[in-house]
């Protein structure tokens, strides 16, 4: 995939309108039969704790400030998180970690994210995923990844003020590397910074999954340090 140029960012109103149009296109997507079947099955069967919910059970678009200087990218919506609530990183423990960290770094209006109409606003940040449908076992196939990545590429083009890409996990790092044309790049590790030729930066963190947080592989101070650094880079410090 070709590198996304910085170019001139769309004006605020234009970017917001184009992002809304892209959101509608993402929500209507049915390119991957396996993912369509899985997300809809999860929405029918549900989890006992959420039996009274009407699941979103559609692709989950990006969310945030059209003038964002920081773009956070994860793997995919959780089956009973974003696939249930309709907003990325919303309604599960990974999202709890993410939005608390964004709040502490000054990027979010509140530290909680329960559903898509809970009043949460992002300031200077935008959150998206490489794959927009919840995949079985959190493992999209290469074909499913490649079907979905153009949406992220188009978001990057519209989010013309972004200076920092925060990659949550190795999958997001690989996907952003593909989109940005990084053919030779360091191996993924927590806290890695990769300067881009256009002056932007890739910043890496372990994903705030239960596998990482329960084992203390990722702690809240470690996570906070990533977003404090993202703030410094976005502000040109």
Description of the structure:
The structure is a single chain. Strand 5 and strand 6 form a beta hairpin. The chain has a single domain (12-234), classed as Uracil-DNA glycosylase-like domain (Uracil-DNA Glycosylase, subunit E). It has 237 residues and is α/β, with parallel strands linked by helices. Helix content is 38%, strand content 11%. It has helices spanning 12-27, 33-45, 82-85, 93-104, 142-158, 170-179, 210-213, 220-234, and strands at 63-64, 70-74, 125-129, 164-168, 193-195, 201-205.
Q: In what range is the share of β-strand residues? A: 5-15%
CATH level 1 name: Alpha Beta
Order of helices and strands: HHEEHHEHEHEEHH
Number of strands: 6
CATH topology: Uracil-DNA Glycosylase, subunit E
Largest sheet: 6 strands, mixed
Work out the radius of gyration: 17 Å
How are the strands of the biggest sheet laid out side by side?
1-3-2-4-6-5
CATH superfamily: Uracil-DNA glycosylase-like domain
Mean pLDDT across residues: 94
Question: Termini distance?
Answer: 31 Å
Structural class: alpha/beta
User: Which outline best applies?
Assistant: globular
CATH architecture assignment: 3-Layer(aba) Sandwich
Distinct helical segment count: 8
Task: Tell me the count of domains.
Answer: 1
In short:
The chain is of the alpha/beta class and 237 residues long. It has eight helices and six strands, in the order H-H-E-E-H-H-E-H-E-H-E-E-H-H.
Note the topology.
Blueprint: H1 12-27, H2 33-45, E1 63-64, E2 70-74, H3 82-85, H4 93-104, E3 125-129, H5 142-158, E4 164-168, H6 170-179, E5 193-195, E6 201-205, H7 210-213, H8 220-234
Parallel strand pairs: 2-3, 2-4, 4-6
Antiparallel strand pairs: 1-3, 5-6
């Amino acid at each position: 995939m070709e590198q996304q140029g910085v170019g001139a960012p769309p004006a605020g109103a234009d970017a917001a309108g184009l992002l809304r149009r892209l959101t509608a296109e993402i929500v209507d997507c049915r390119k991957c039969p396996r993912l369509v079947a899985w997300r809809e099955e999860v929405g029918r069967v549900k989890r006992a704790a959420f039996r009274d919910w009407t699941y979103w059970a559609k692709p989950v678009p990006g969310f945030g400030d059209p003038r964002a200087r920081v773009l956070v990218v994860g793997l995919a919506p959780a089956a009973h998180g974003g696939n249930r609530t309709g907003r990325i990183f919303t309604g599960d423990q990974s999202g709890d970690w993410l939005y608390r960290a964004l709040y502490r770094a000054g990027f979010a209006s509140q530290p909680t994210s329960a559903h898509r109409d809970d009043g949460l606003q992002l300031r200077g940040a935008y959150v998206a995923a490489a794959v927009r449908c919840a995949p079985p076992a959190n493992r999209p196939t290469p074909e499913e990844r490649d079907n979905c990545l153009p949406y992220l590429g188009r978001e990057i083009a519209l989010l013309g003020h972004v200076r920092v890409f925060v990659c949550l996990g190795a999958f997001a790092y690989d996907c952003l590397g593909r989109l940005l044309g990084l053919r030779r790049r360091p191996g993924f590790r927590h806290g890695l910074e990769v300067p881009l030729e256009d002056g932007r930066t890739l910043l890496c963190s372990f994903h705030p999954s239960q596998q990482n947080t329960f084992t203390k592989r990722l702690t809240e101070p470690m996570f906070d340090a990533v977003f404090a650094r993202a703030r410094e880079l976005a502000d040109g410090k």
